[in-house]
Amino acid sequence: MDLFTLTRGRNIRVGLKAPRKEEAIELLLDCLLEEGAVPATSRELLLDAIMRRERRLSTGLERGIAIPHGTTELVDVEVAALGVFPDGVPFDAVDEHETRIVILLVTPACNRHKHVGNLAKIAAQLLRAEVRGALLSATSRAEALAAIRGSA
Fold first, then answer.
1. How far apart are CA 10 and CA 25, in angstroms?
2. Quick one: residue 93, left, alpha or beta (phi over 0 = left, psi -120 to 50 = alpha)?
3. Tell me, what CATH number does 51's domain have?
4. Which residues of the chain have pLDDT under 70?
């Protein structure tokens, strides 16, 4: 699945700030909650699943991208939130640079096998310089949406 589909075209936030990756993840989880993309009562359980995965190995990739993720029985369909952090977030990335684009991916446990393919597709979209550049210069959800809409 591509970012447009995973974010449902609305689980997108730009101009975010977070001093640590944990806060960045929480901001994006709250986005999913606000948009009704995950059950309202699931915040702590989802956060625990995502952070448990993050503690095993950082999901900070390279070129300012991170894709924290978790699997859970609490959702029926895979969903993502996209956040743009212009000032960067320390994310323990493999290239040791700060992360500026974070995609939070939540996958149903029964579809655990699908999330690896979706992680690869998201990474491929975001490794395109023009997509990253458009996201980083976005000042609204509409601009960020335009950046990912044509990148699938």
1. 17
2. beta
3. 3.40.930.10
4. 150-152
